[in-house]
Design brief:
654 residues; alpha+beta; DNA Primase, Chain A; DNA primase DNAg catalytic core, N-terminal domain; Dna Topoisomerase Vi A Subunit, Chain: A, domain 2; 5 domains; five-stranded mixed β-sheet; four-stranded antiparallel β-sheet; 15 strands; globular; TOPRIM_dom
């Protein structure tokens, strides 16, 4: 549903963010200024005792100086209530006395039809609940008792029973005034091919109602009582209410539990979810008779940033987990991940809890593995890498998997982790394998984690002066370190530029911890009037900002010296941000190319390329330094470099 222009602006105008936030926090009145709408409280998003959560009622924004959470009234409702955007809009609109925009007639007609179908589903749930308590439901009650489902659990999940009758439900619903076509469209009854009267779709089965995130009954799941039944579990068909690829069992209660910091655990079936919830894991959900779909995965990420996949510990469960990996790789975003809790062989969550108790499941969830670990395990499982060709095949399959990740930052971090795992497997000295195997010494000086960072670590016997130098202290590329300092210095001297450059400042990779802390303090004032920023920033940053502005290259820089020239500062800031991003992108691309070559058929290629680069560097220096004392024959160096290029030393000789 789209909102008309101006609706959200009017909603924000009518809404007081301090009133919205005030329902969830206790204001620190010693620090707050209620008359100016300047309110402070302990943060509702992380545990703390001090009041670092700031609400500016006039601007309609909140910001936490501890966890850096920020947003407006809508985002606060979404985060604290764990609801979607439109639901947050509806909540605020009701409180503000605003009427949600009316839908067009066709949409209204469709909505009315869905409401009628929901009534059919609700009546069906109540009918099957009643049937469970009758004499015909004795066998179902015995089965549930055998599965340790007491009356409380049965009521909580509204479990029912469908007797083995052809038209028991159909007659009950028509007696309540529902038309046959509506009953069939709801999916609880089916129409025979010969055109006869509709018959009950669920017969001789224990019934599990399926509800959407708003609590509406949208379909049913049924477990057969007859062990010889053609299908052990049966779900309702696709209907205007029910799309099995977009729904999750126990969606609403799980969303509420996850909003209170419970983990989101994805199980395989109804009984697993019920067992998990009864054991205290309220954030349990399950797909509905299909493998996890892309829509379900996105739905899970709306509920929780890091769902735990806890599928059965058998071959089918392992295959399902691997399918989820292939599905998730292209969808990964920063902060959106998956973890996998590997069940013991032959057990599902229900079996594990019954056999070993809640503590065993809690331990298993706490040890859930990141997705990259399962990806790696899949590629090496049962394989021996005792030849260059086999190792090259592993490299090829891993690169193909990582390239499917759309987010460049995540793709880079996956490459780092895969490189580390590969180093652990093949290592220096012993070229190990998943099942043994020998290998030789590596000629490369590569170390995991060094990719593209320009890292410099002073040797153990370095002089104190060396360790105290900028290069030794930062462990980073000096030019990039100085450029990052310039960016922060310009923002501190020209606070009016913080808001226009907020997105670039958030995205820039500041690898020095002090720089990163200053960046967060600067961004915290993106919505603060510029004339108030300087004083607040100096008070919060303390010596870090003073030391930064005291750097020689900042003291003499035009945008720092000319504090009144905002346009000059704007151009310089844009240029520094662009240069920093370009330099790092170029270096990372080169590092990626070097890593792609690493471990393939000819491992000497990276060494030879490095030698060529060294010669080129020497040649360039000799051109710039007209110094006869160096003893370097520039012509000879140039000729040697050209010979290496002409000879294409990077190609393997046959």
């Amino acid at each position: 549903m789209s909102l008309p222009p101006g609706f959200l602006d009017e909603l924000r105008t009518r809404t007081s963010i301090s009133q919205v936030v005030g329902r969830k926090v206790i204001w620190d009145m010693r620090k707050s200024n209620q008359g100016k709408g300047d309110m402070w409280a302990p943060c509702p998003f992380h545990q703390e005792k001090s009041a670092s959560f700031h609400v500016d009622d006039r601007k309609g924004y909140y910001y936490c100086f501890g966890c850096h959470a920020k947003g407006d009234a809508l985002s606060f409702i979404r985060e604290t209530e764990n609801v979607g955007f439109m639901e947050a809009v509806e909540i605020l609109a009701r409180e503000a006395g605003m009427t949600m925009p009316a839908r067009d007639p066709k949409a209204q007609e469709k909505s009315d039809r869905r409401a009628q179908l929901a009534e059919v589903m609700e009546a069906t749930v109540q009918h099957y609940r009643l049937m469970l308590s009758t004499a015909a439901g004795q066998g179902a009650r015995d089965y549930l008792a055998g599965r340790k489902l007491d009356e409380h659990a049965q009521n909580r999940f509204e479990i029912g029973f469908a007797p083995d009758q052809r038209q028991g439900l159909f007659q009950a619903l028509t007696a309540k005034g529902f038309t046959p076509d509506l009953i069939v469209e709801a999916g609880v009854c089916a129409k025979p091919d010969d055109g006869g009267a509709p018959y009950d779709r669920f017969r001789g089965r224990i019934i599990f109602p399926i509800r959407d995130g708003r609590g509406r009954a949208i379909s049913l799941g049924g477990r057969a009582m007859d062990p010889n039944a053609r299908a052990k579990y049966l779900n309702g068909p696709e209907t205007p209410l029910f799309d099995k690829g977009r729904s999750l069992y126990n969606h609403g209660p799980a969303r509420e539990a996850c909003g209170k910091d419970a983990p989101l655990v994805v199980c395989e079936g109804y009984m697993d979810v019920i067992a998990m919830v009864e054991a205290g894991f309220g954030g349990a959900v399950a797909p509905l008779g299909t493998a996890v779909t892309e829509d379900q995965l996105r739905l899970m990420w709306r509920i929780h940033d890091e769902p735990i996949i806890a599928l059965d510990g058998d071959t089918a469960g392992t295959r399902a987990a691997l399918r989820v990996i292939d599905l998730a790789l292209p969808l990964l975003e920063a902060g959106k991940a998956l973890r996998f809790a590997v069940m013991p062989a032959g057990l599902d969550p229900d079996d594990l809890i019954k056999a070993q108790g809640r503590e065993a499941m809690e331990k298993l969830l706490s040890e859930a593995k990141p997705m990259v670990s399962l990806l790696w395990q899949r590629e090496i499982e049962g394989k021996v890498f005792d030849s260059p060709e086999r190792r090259a095949a592993l490299d090829k399959s891993l690169r193909a998997a990582i390239k499917r990740i759309a987010d460049p930052s995540i793709r880079s971090h996956y490459g780092e982790e895969i490189k580390r795992l590969r180093w652990d497997l093949f290592g220096t000295g012993q070229r190990g394998s998943a099942g043994g195997g020998q290998g030789g010494q590596r000629r490369s000086d590569f170390k995991p984690g060094a990719r593209g960072k320009g890292r410099f670590t002073p040797p153990a016997n370095a002089l104190p002066e060396t360790r105290a130098s900028l290069l030794g202290a930062t462990g980073d590329d000096v030019s990039e370190h100085l450029r990052a300092a310039m960016i922060l210095g310009i923002c501190a001297i020209h606070p009016a530029l913080i808001a226009p450059f907020e997105a670039q400042l958030e995205a820039v990779d500041l690898r020095d911890p002090t720089h990163d802390r200053l960046r967060h303090l600067i961004l915290a004032h993106a919505v603060t009037p510029p004339e108030q920023i300087a004083e607040k920033l100096r008070a919060q940053a303390g010596d870090d900002l003073e030391k930064l502005l005291a750097l020689p290259h900042l003291r003499s820089a035009p945008p720092i010296v000319k504090a009144d020239d905002i346009e000059l500062a704007r151009m310089c800031l844009a240029e520094e941000l662009a240069k920093l991003a370009t330099a790092r992108a170029m270096r990372d691309e080169i590092a990626d190319a070097m890593e792609d070559l690493e471990g393939l058929a000819d491992e000497g290629v990276t060494w030879r390329l490095a030698q060529a680069a060294t010669l080129r560097h020497q040649a360039e220096r000799s051109k710039l330094e007209d110094n006869s004392d160096t003893g370097e024959d520039r012509a000879a160096l140039s000729a040697q470099l050209q010979a290496m290029i002409d000879g294409q030393i990077w190609r393997k000789k046959h």
